[in-house]
Amino acid sequence: MVGARRGKGGDDERIRALGLDPRRIPRHIACVMDGNGRWAQQRGLKRTEGHAAGEEALLDAVNGALELGVRWLSVYAFSTENWSRPTDEVRFLMDFNRRILLGHRDELHAKGVRIQFLGRRDWRVPRRLLRVIDETVELTAGNRGMTFSVCFNYGGRAEIIDAVAAMMRDGVSAEKVSEKTLRRYFYAPDMPDPDLVIRTSGEFRISNFLLWELAYSELIFTPIYWPDFRREHLVEAVREYQVRDRRFGGLA
Ligand code: FPP
Fold first, then answer.
1. Residue 59's Cα: distance from chain center in Å?
2. Among this protein's residues, is 82 annotated catalytic?
3. What percent of the chain is modeled with pLDDT above 70?
4. Which end of the chain is more exposed for a tag (fewer CB within 10 A), N or C?
């Protein structure tokens, strides 16, 4: 079901003025924020400066989604494979995520955004980041506006493996295994599957992002690098999404 329960931020007239149908706003948009490193390299900057420039893009995308009344927005902030990057970059990204949360959580909280984290809490994630994550989740847990899911130390395969392991620990019998049962063990069982996935930077890959949940998502790939992404690009992606024919394996 698409656009049936839009957030209160979505004002129909404003949405129509953008050339969008307010009844077909995707309920869940997920973003692969790619191209920070290349954006920086093109400018003769350090890769980490590309990540830093991605902060403004992120905030603009969140605000754009709120304006459209999108109920769920998810972003791929750090993958289970990103640990293989140079130590300095990994260290930067850990602190960067912490600083973004500290810098913006009050503003997002005031806008009614619930922030949640999807991924593995393992020993490599610094304690001080975990503390800020926990505080942020607790602070915003009661919000009923948009849910902003940060996929951090996240891998689609890891999520499926973790769910299967937890299911086995619970002693679920083979006869009881179904899509519904497995989903109950995912990191965010109440999260609807993304309707629309946007990947920046001209790469045509899923890169282990929400593998199970993307089964019937509409995919949009844009050549622009993440630091240049703004709410206009989000609107453009939703415009393209609205002319797609979603059949979910059935017939039109
Ligand atoms: C991919 O670009 C981007 C990342 C690995 C990190 C993006 C993270 C943020 C913008 C911060 C998110 C934080 C919160 C709290 C939501 P890349 O390094 O793969 O770029 P490249 O492909 O050009 O090398």
1. 13
2. yes
3. 96
4. C
Is 0.90 topped by the overall pTM? yes
Question: For the CA atoms of the chain, what is the radius of gyration?
Answer: 18
Say which of 11, 12, 82, 162 is annotated catalytic: 82
Q: For the domain that residue 95 is a member of, what is the CATH number?
A: 3.40.1180.10
Residue at 234 is within a domain? no
Q: From ligand 1's centre to the CA of 92, what distance in Å? A: 11
Cβ atoms of 210 and 30 closer than 8 Å: yes
Cα–Cα distance between 132 and 134 in angstroms, integer?
Answer: 5
Across the range 105-121, mean pLDDT stands at 98
What is the DSSP secondary structure assignment for residue 121, as one 8-state letter?
A: -
Mutation probe of ligand 1 site: the residue of 31, 32, 36 with most atoms within 8 A of C-beta: 36
Ligand 1 pocket, CB under 6 A: 33-38, 51, 54, 58, 75, 77, 82, 97, 100-101, 150, 201
| Cα-to-centroid distance, 90 and ligand 1 (Å) | 11
For residues 81 and 73, give the distance between their C-alpha atoms in angstroms, rounded to a whole number.
Answer: 22
- Domain extent, residue 179, equals 21-228
| Over residues 37-49, mean pLDDT | 98
| pLDDT tens digit sequence for 213-235 | 999 999 999 999 999 999 999 99
Distance of CA 248 to the CA centre of its chain: 22
pLDDT at 252: 76
Is residue 244 assigned to a domain? no
- State which ligand 1 atom lies nearest to the alpha carbon of 38: 23
Is the residue at 73 inside a domain?
yes
